Amino acid sequence: MLNEERIKLMTRMASYESTEGKKNESVAKHFRSDYVGLEVLKAVICATIAYMIAFGVYIYYDFENFMLNIYKIDLWAFASSALKKYVIFVVCYSVIVYIAFSFKYSHAKHNLKIYFNNLKLLGTLYVKEKENEEDYGEN
Amino acid sequence: MRDLLVIKEKLKKFVGKNEVFILPVLKFLMVFIAMTKINSSLGFMSKLSNGGITLIVALAGSFLPLNLTLVILALIITAHMYKLSMECAILVLALFVIMFLLYFRFASKDSVGALLVPISFAFKVPYIMPVSMGLVGGPCSMVSVGCGTVIYQVLHYIAVNAENIKGGGGDKITEKLGSLKAIVDGMLENKAVIVYAVAFSITVLVVYIIRRLSINYSWFIAIAAGSIGCFVLVLITTAAIHAQVSLGGAFFGMIISIIVNLILQYFLFDLDYNRSERVQFEDDEYYYYVKAVPKNTIKLGGNAEPIRRAKPEHVREAVRRPAPTRVAREESATPVQTRARETVRATATNAAKTAVKRPASKGPLGMSGGRPAGEGRKKD
């Protein structure tokens, strides 16, 4: 016999599984520190590449001036200044990524908790339905 | 109002029923418009500018993920730039790669903002987008709106100065490098980028924060505050950095933004605040303070016509049946009812006779106490 409440619950759960569920499951497989740490590591790599590209474009932009003054400028100071900017940029970006992915992890965990609660509820509905059927059978 | 609700419900029903077809068609249109605009303003590579390529890319975009479509469009733009000058191609490619690496890697859902903002700029209605993205997106949308603004302004600068850029690039390496410096310096002089990027990003955040507040009419307030705030921000930043931004355009943009976003709000978040309820309850772990606001909806029947709310049975009966005439009442009366009526009539006749015979009795102060004869209780 069709149970409307059960069908609604199952539809909602199937919809979740097919959209956010897959992503959330892969997120929740890890410990919080592992997941966020991995994402921050990726962020550091991406930020490094992005900084290198921006630095390359900057050098290309000012190449003429740079080549003319290459023997006059303090290369050590120039390199340390570039490195400082790199560190500031990477740290800022990593902090933003850390916050964003911590929030994402919490969100995924929360959604999965709701999903598992719904699973329990579904199990309860099945048990109730079975008991009802048995009662009718006896009567 | 009721007709509008019916139209909305019909539209929602239609979209829900044909979502499989409508979404690809919308994506196709979006990519087609983007490609047409790219070709019309940056069509330096004739092989990519023909209609066939446009159609193929739009068709591919209709079923590919939006992020991949964005990558394809970025590559097409870079190819056009390469045909114009190597420096422009390097600059634009660097810009795209940095954006993809830093932002779209972890906020892929908002990539639609980066695509729609340049399109809205091309149609001269950019002020709609920050408010819309604040309504439907999240706080991360401010970055996608900012990225879209920067992309459009850079491409617009290159499209406007294409002739100068082409003439500036010579064979000698110094001339080419000088060309890149000139392009970047020219872009940095265009302070409108800063005005738009700052105003739009802050607007997205303001709209998002206000529409999430637990107050009545939060979406209305967010739309009004966002649109007016965006206009004020443009005014302030323009005055502060002496940028060249059309303030008349900003004012009309604000009005258009309010109108378009109110329509968007009507379809996405139309609530009836008069019927809102506040309830409190608890379970083992929490105490809940819930505010429930019903949506403004109307139920449609199978023939897509609104279902009228059923009245209670006794009200419907009363409406349908006319009041019985006296003859009909007497015909349908039971013997007990007939006898009761006869008794009432006889009593009334006797009372009238008695009143005619007896003089009107005086009250204690000599005033008439009883009713005059013939003005007794009216007959049934």
Describe the structure.
The complex is a heterodimer of chains A (139) and B (380). Chain A is mainly alpha-helical. Chain A has one domain (33-130). Chain A has helices at residues 4-28, 32-61, 63-68, 75-138. In chain A, α2 runs antiparallel to α4 (75-138). Chain A is rod-shaped and about 100 Å long. The two termini of chain A are 17 Å apart. The relative contact order of chain A is 0.15. The model of chain A has no long low-confidence stretch (mean pLDDT 85). Chain B is mainly alpha-helical and 380 residues long. Chain B has one domain (2-275). Chain B has 17 helices and two strands. Chain B has helices at residues 2-17, 19-42, 46-49, 51-63, 66-84, 86-104, 111-122, 128-136, 141-160, 162-168, 173-189, 192-211, 218-241, 247-268, 313-320, 326-332, 335-357; strands at residues 277-282, 287-292. A two-stranded antiparallel sheet of chain B has the order 1-2. In chain B, β1 and β2 form a beta hairpin. Classes of the chains: A mainly alpha (139), B mainly alpha (380). The interface between A and B is medium-sized, with 20 and 17 residues.
Note the topology.
The complex is a heterodimer of chains A (139) and B (380).
Chain A: H1 4-28, H2 32-61, H3 63-68, H4 75-138
Chain B: H1 2-17, H2 19-42, H3 46-49, H4 51-63, H5 66-84, H6 86-104, H7 111-122, H8 128-136, H9 141-160, H10 162-168, H11 173-189, H12 192-211, H13 218-241, H14 247-268, E1 277-282, E2 287-292, H15 313-320, H16 326-332, H17 335-357
Antiparallel strand pairs in B: 1-2
Helix pairs in contact in B: 2-4, 2-5, 2-7, 5-6, 6-9, 6-11, 7-8, 7-9, 8-12, 8-13, 8-14, 9-12, 12-13, 13-14
